[in-house]
Design brief:
Blueprint: H1 8-16, H2 30-40, E1 52-58, H3 60-77, H4 85-92, E2 104-110, H5 115-134, E3 138-141, H6 146-149, H7 152-157, E4 165-173
Antiparallel strand pairs: 1-2, 2-4, 3-4
Helix pairs in contact: 2-5
Amino acid sequence: MSIAVATPGVIDAIYTRRAMRAYTSAPIDRSVIESLIDAAIQAPSYTDNEPWSFAVVHGTDVLRGLSDEVKAAALALAPEHAMPERLRHELADPAFSVFHDAAALIVVCATSPRQQDAEDCCLAAENVMLAALAYGLGTCPIGLSRPWLQLPQAKAQLGIDAAHVPVFAIAIGHPAVQPPSPGRRKPRIVHYPA
């Protein structure tokens, strides 16, 4: 019987990946973005359905403009009790960019509204974030963009098929700083037979 041995590169990537919220102004080459998307589609999918499509936005200035739309939608569409006051304050600040001045954004979309397809898209998104680390890039999931991304005008603006469902937005750029680990609680294992 052989014993499985973890590949240090993969384990290191899992343990060192952080949500980056500060980027340099350096652009990202189109071929790198395409490589990240190619890594995304290596994710497993139910019945090999590959239920994903991708929208890419390039440029810090373009993302700053979209950030204003995202902030307005988040403030308008989120129930008041569901958003912490600190976050409401950030969203009201004209200087705050939802995309943290990243160089690019990849939006992973499901090709149907099925929950399984959305879950498969999340697997693809994790591949993007881990692959970005191999290129020396930082990433940050942008959950705040989800309400805006569901709007028909936002989907049209990004060229997302009307029938597709934006699931996961990832800001990507060259990190300006490496944040420390926030730490993790011990896992809650509810069943582990002897």
